[in-house]
Write a structure and sequence with these properties.
Structural class: alpha/beta
Shape: rod-shaped
Helix content: 25-40%
Order of helices and strands: HHHEEHEHEEEHEEEEHEHEEH
Oligomer: single chain
Length: about 325
């Protein structure tokens, strides 16, 4: 028997079993009840068993019919999923839920989305910028952009770049409080830090070839680097954030890099994470590919230079 005829039989039988009558299934398919009955008869003749018990008032499914219905549903679902996957490959479509932090989304991700939308007009982008961790594995989003070490788990990750850490303060703050020359000078300064539970109140340094942490303290903590960078630019204190957050302020002279000769070169890797595998929707794959294609705009490990340093300040080499 031709494969397409078998698929048609599976669809008809499933509809009959779910609708409970030949006439109801016939209305769904635009066929006469007698035509539906002949198809069921053909299936039963081929299998040599009764799948449905007919009376004048109702249809009753047999144990064999129940097993056949379960298999039919599974086969039809697999077929629909495969067809959708193949269709998506030729023309990615559907809703794509993307999440990342507010700061990174605003500064780095959102400026790239216009070209993606023009390139894939059939994809509906659902963008969620939040500093709350979204559970990708649990289906709360399709693609997430994460910073730092990744925990072991079921997600697939593709590296987008990395961001280097830098200590900064405003020229006004340094003129008032003095410029730290060695890490231990920070004990006399207001150091602005993160309030994450995982964020230790220490900053790492390297001196004489040895890496060591230095405990810092200050009057302000925040949950994102953009806020800390803005506070530092306002002269509130000294902070340590990713270069992407403060590169414009450094170039404009509103912030000054400090203690660069003691910088251990620590970076945070940036990854796109998603549920991988053979059945990953094309809309997810093409979006992650687009991010990788534009990774030079999404992460950097380069030091950031100021346009011009005030004569009263001496900057360490950032090479």
């Amino acid at each position: 028997m031709a494969g397409m005829e078998v698929i048609g039989d599976l669809e008809v039988f499933t509809l009959v079993a779910e609708a409970g009558s030949f006439s109801a299934a016939g209305r769904r398919l635009g066929l006469a009840p007698s035509s539906i009955a002949r198809i069921v008869d053909r299936i039963e003749a081929r299998l040599g068993v009764r799948l449905l018990l007919r009376t004048t008032r109702m249809l009753t499914i047999t144990p064999e019919g129940t097993a056949y219905l379960s298999a039919a549903r599974r086969i039809l679902a697999d077929l629909r999923e495969t067809e959708q996957m193949i269709s998506d490959r030729s023309s990615p479509r559907g809703r794509l839920r993307v999440t990342t932090s507010i700061q990174y989304g605003r500064l780095s991700l959102v400026p790239l989305l216009g070209e993606f939308i023009r390139r894939y007009p059939d994809i509906m982008l659902d963008v969620n910028l939040t500093d709350t961790v979204v559970d990708i594995a649990a289906g709360q989003a399709d693609v997430g952009i994460r910073f730092g070490p990744l925990a072991d788990g079921p997600l697939t990750a593709r590296k987008l770049g990395e961001t280097r850490k830098v200590i900064v303060a405003s020229p006004e703050y340094l003129a008032c409080r003095g410029t730290p020359k060695v890490p231990e000078d920070l004990h006399g300064h207001d150091c602005l830090g993160f309030n994450f539970k995982r964020a230790a109140p220490t900053w790492p340094f390297r001196k004489d070839g040895r890496d060591y942490p230095l405990t810092i303290k200050g009057s302000v903590e925040a949950n994102n680097g953009e806020t800390l960078g803005q506070l530092a630019a306002e002269g509130v204190g000294i902070t340590r954030v990713g270069t992407q957050t403060v590169e414009d302020a450094i170039r404009s002279g509103h912030l000054v890099p400090l203690l660069e000769e003691f910088n251990p070169g620590e970076v945070e890797e940036i990854h796109a994470v998603f549920v991988g595998g053979a059945h990953t929707p094309a809309r997810v794959r093409c979006f992650v590919d687009y991010l990788v294609e534009n990774s030079r705009l999404l992460g950097t490990g380069r030091p950031v230079r100021r346009e011009q340093a005030p004569d009263s300040l001496s900057l360490e080499s950032e090479r």
